[in-house]
Amino acid sequence: AARSGKRLERIPDDVVNEVLARLDAILN
């Protein structure tokens, strides 16, 4: 659990939002 937590912390929020926005655009 700790390992995956550290892995997620390395991903900036803006990158996550970018990916989610792209996925949303593709699905819609």
* Class by SSE composition: mainly alpha
Helix content: over 70%
Query: Beta-strand level of the residues, as a percent range?
Result: under 5%
Radius of gyration: 12 Å
> What is the global morphology?
elongated
Order of helices and strands: HH
- How far is the N terminus from the C terminus? 33 Å
Figure out the total of helices: 2
Protein name: Type II toxin-antitoxin system PemK/MazF family toxin
Organism: Oceanidesulfovibrio indonesiensis
Summarize the structure.
This is Type II toxin-antitoxin system PemK/MazF family toxin. The protein is mainly α.
Task: Detail the topology: elements first, then pairings.
Elements lengths: L1 H8 L3 H15 L1
Explain what the structure shows.
With 28 residues, the protein is an all-alpha fold. The chain is 82% helix and 0% strand. The chain has one domain (1-28). The chain is elongated, with a radius of gyration of 12 Å. This is Type II toxin-antitoxin system PemK/MazF family toxin.
Can you give keywords for this protein?
single chain, about 30 residues, mainly alpha, 2 helices, Type II toxin-antitoxin system PemK/MazF family toxin
